[in-house]
Design goal:
By secondary structure, the protein is an alpha/beta fold. The protein contains 18 helices and 32 strands. The strands form 6 sheets. The protein has a 10-stranded mixed sheet with strand order 15-14-16-17-13-18-19-20-21-22, sandwiched between helices. Helix 2 runs parallel beside helix 4. It is elongated.
């Protein structure tokens, strides 16, 4: 009897199993070199299946020495292209050719291979893929009811995160270190259980990293060279909530059901964002909404009536295109991190789909600022109209996001009216922030009502007055605000008449442009203290107790470019300073850069600072 096993039978250990049962007494086991090549390639790529197959071949050699079977190898090794095309049947075809050439029985655990081989007239022995009753995972013994995640690493003591949401502790859970052999056993058990159980699947299988979803567990198995050691991390939610469990539940329900919304759920890692997103998803699904999810990996614990999608072909944009054909009422996007994610989120929202996105942020306003620079400013309220900030498992803050053409708070004059994004407290309706374009820069201004210190608007207004006067005056300039609508400008005595202009025409033009009444005085008339709001060269305004990140702007033919990638994330609002003195506020654009058009007052000021070798820093606003 001559038996030719294919790769599936070798990996599953079905050859040695049948030899040991006596079914292949006296048989010749002919292993195609194509199978050996495929197993070697899988092992080199870091896949457990390759190692399992190689171990099976070693068992066959041992069995040949202790029993009546003979083990032989036959055929040619597959080339690189054939190994890469294994999923398309290239290796299976080579195995069939070997079986046909030898007149042997083909042993397989692959139902497609079995049916194709029978269609070609081969003698086929099909055995069910190896599996077991998947009652649970070995690593489940490390979990108790308070365990959110278990962290295993070869050569280290097992650890776990345990406690309540918002009060987690990373602690040792066993005194004995985890051995390499234990890690391999755990990894094999995880992979086999995922394959055998209808409640499990392999989410990602790349060289050095395998991610498995089994029931409520998301398990990442990392190996060298991707990781510097063999590591297994298993995570599960420790609570499952309903929307009724949260503050503002009734108002949020009404808001979500009123019409399709754009919602960002924000919070720090471990704050309970995904748990809240799951509660929102199940609430929406229970109220006549078709709900889908976009996740990579898929780990939201939602009901069976909610379909969970991952990245199609590794690209969430393709997933979005497919979902637009499905036309869900709401889609839960977990998590929105990169620029591509925000663009996909915005595209689906503007197509009329209700979107709920999960975002990492340490403040509620930070979640919204992630859209700045990624979505056209005027479109932001159409993309996101609600921000929910989660802290320690509870709803901490809810913002309502709208847009209005108005004069921003703290500025005056109707000609300063512009589109303003208003972020208001959902509970009280009180405005909390405004986002708008000020002197070609997008600014986020808190509306905290604190009159005791210079507000963001005041600082911007002061610097804008300063720039305008500097473009006229030839000497030193300082500015002091006197409330929201008035400013005092101090200039050199020789510049007084030049700044005011004939009949006051020049200063009137500046007042009209800025909507601020300006009183022009000489530097000798300024308060002896120099004024805490003083600007210009040598003034003390804008000083800060934060050093910031030192940057070296690049001057091109059209722009002054500030590389702020090391100082802030894309979309974050920052201040640019020279020798600790405030220059301007800006939003970090794509690529982590701030671009200022040359010829503008800001660019002139920045170039002046560079010419005088001042220290340029970027500070989070």
């Amino acid at each position: 009897m001559n038996v030719v096993p294919d790769t599936s039978a070798v990996i599953d250990g079905r050859v040695s199993e049948r030899v040991e049962s006596g079914a292949y007494e006296g048989a010749t086991i002919t292993v195609p070199e194509a199978v050996v090549g495929e197993l070697e390639w899988q092992a080199n790529e870091g896949h457990d299946t390759g190692w399992e197959g190689i171990e099976e071949l070693q068992r066959l050699v041992d069995l040949a020495e202790s029993s009546t079977i003979t083990v032989e190898y036959h055929g040619k090794r597959p080339d690189a292209g054939q190994k890469r095309s294994a999923d398309e049947g290239e290796i299976d075809a080579i195995v069939r050719d070997v079986a046909a050439e030898l007149g042997a029985t083909l042993l397989t655990s692959d139902v497609v291979q079995a049916e194709v081989s029978r269609a070609k007239g081969l003698d086929v022995e099909y055995v069910e893929p190896r599996g077991r009753d998947a009652e649970g995972l070995q690593i489940e013994s490390f979990f108790d009811e308070t365990t959110m995640s278990v962290h295993l690493r070869a050569g280290a003591k097992p650890r776990a995160k345990r406690g309540a949401i918002g009060d987690m502790h990373y602690e040792v859970i066993r005194d004995e270190v985890t051995t390499e052999a234990e890690m391999k056993e755990f990894a094999h058990d995880i992979a086999e259980t995922a394959r055998a159980s209808p409640d499990g699947f392999v989410e990602l299988d790349e060289p050095g990293m395998t991610i498995v979803q089994y029931r409520s567990y998301r398990i990442a198995v990392a190996r060298p060279p991707f990781a510097d050691g063999f590591e297994i991390t298993a995570v599960r939610p420790i609570v499952k909530t309903d929307l009724e469990d949260y503050e503002f539940a009734e108002d949020l329900k009404e808001r979500l059901l009123e019409r399709q919304r754009g919602v960002l759920i924000a919070g720090a890692p471990g704050a309970g964002k995904s748990t809240f997103a799951q509660a929102v998803a199940e609430f929406l699904a229970s109220h006549d909404n078709a709900v889908k999810t976009m996740e990579k990996p898929r780990d939201l614990q939602v009901g069976s009536d909610i379909t969970q999608y991952t990245a199609l072909g590794g690209d969430m944009a393709k997933t979005a295109d497919s979902l637009l054909l499905v036309r869900p009422d709401y889609t839960i996007y977990d998590e929105v991190r990169k620029t591509d994610d925000f663009e996909v989120f915005a595209d689906m929202r503007l197509a009329g789909v209700g979107m709920v996105g999960v975002v990492h942020a340490t403040r509620a306003i930070d979640a919204l600022q992630r859209l700045v620079g990624r979505v056209e400013l005027g479109m932001i309220p159409q993309v996101v109209d609600t921000v929910v900030y989660i802290e320690a498992g509870r709803v901490d803050t809810v913002y309502d996001v709208t847009t209005e053409v108005k004069v921003p708070e703290g500025l005056t004059a109707e000609d300063l009216a512009r589109p303003v994004i208003q972020i208001s407290d959902f509970e009280t309706g009180d405005p909390a922030f405004e986002i708008y374009t000020f002197n070609r820069q997008v600014v986020t201004v808190p509306l905290d009502g604190d009159e005791s210190s210079e507000t963001g608007v005041s600082r911007l207004a002061r610097k804008e007055v300063e720039r305008e006067i500097r473009s006229i005056a030839r000497g030193h300039v300082e500015v002091e605000l006197k409330g929201q609508n008035e400013a005092v400008v101090y200039v050199e005595e020789d510049d007084i008449s030049y700044v005011i202009g004939k009949g006051g025409g020049r200063i009137s033009d500046v007042e009209d442009r800025l909507g601020i009444d300006i009183d022009v005085r000489t530097l000798d008339e300024r308060p002896s203290s120099g004024g805490s709001n003083g600007g210009g060269g040598g003034g003390s305004g804008g000083a800060t107790d934060r050093e910031g990140t030192v940057v070296t702007p690049e001057v091109t033919s059209r722009h002054v470019v500030v590389d702020a990638a090391d100082a802030a994330d894309v979309g974050q609002t920052v201040e640019v300073r020279a020798d600790g003195e405030y220059l301007f506020t800006a939003t970090v654009g794509r690529g982590g850069e701030i671009q200022v058009s040359r010829g503008s007052a800001i660019a002139d000021e920045l170039e002046h600072a560079l010419d005088h070798k001042q220290r340029i820093t970027v500070v989070s606003a």
